[in-house]
Amino acid sequence: MQLYRVPEEDQAWLAYRPETAMGLHVLAAEHDTYDDWVIIIGGQVAIFARELLPHDGEHEPIHYLEEPWFRQDARGLETDRQELFEEWFGTLGILERSLQNDRIVPSIEFKLFPIGPFPNPPQPGQWTYGHLPFIGLTGTNEVYYRWEPWPASKRINQATGMVAPGTFTAPLSEIPFMPTGFSAVARLALPGLLPACFRWELKPPPNTPTRCGASVPLYGQSGGGVEVAFQGGFQNVGPIANPVVLPAL
User: Fold this and answer.
1) What is the mean pLDDT of the chain?
2) Is the Cα dihedral 12, 14, 15, 17 positive or negative?
3) Would you call 176 helix, strand, or coil by DSSP?
4) Which domain holds residue 77?
5) Does residue 124 lie in a domain region?
């Protein structure tokens, strides 16, 4: 699979646009076919949808799990991790496409079948049943978590404490069920295949509006976790710590 570096101006634009799913935007130009849809992982790295479709032969494997920045120790310092990640990020080819005129595809429209030599799946429905159907408000001293594939988040601003509108999270009760990056992908039914190994802890103010519900099976993943979306974003209560680094497996 070919990964591309999203230009900085498009990263900044995406940081305040609602997500298609946790850690992921799907974008389509006006006359795009599905093959030309662009999937943005963690607001920074792009892959074309056609790379995820079944085809004859083997998919080219992604080797980034071998990178030093991905390891749990990363020389023991978060500053080193970020520098190592930036070095790797700079080796990716730039995405030769402007995203800011594209349409962000909502989760109810984005359909992705399992990759591999499987029987043809049934035709997807016109809408996703049961995706975050409930509206609520946060209580006092509640804590939420977010799993991302890169060490630096584009939706969580540690300097200001702001969490961007349209950001997906999960409640404290989900922590025991997602101890690794790949388990987060499976339980939250994330379209991005990369392990979400960087877990952020967030504390919204009381009475912050939410949308919530169970993660339904999508994209070839099992689902079953609880998701909470903050459509309006929020100002975090207190400072935001560096993410906890989880193993991939």
Assistant:
1) 83
2) positive
3) helix
4) 4-108+133-245
5) no
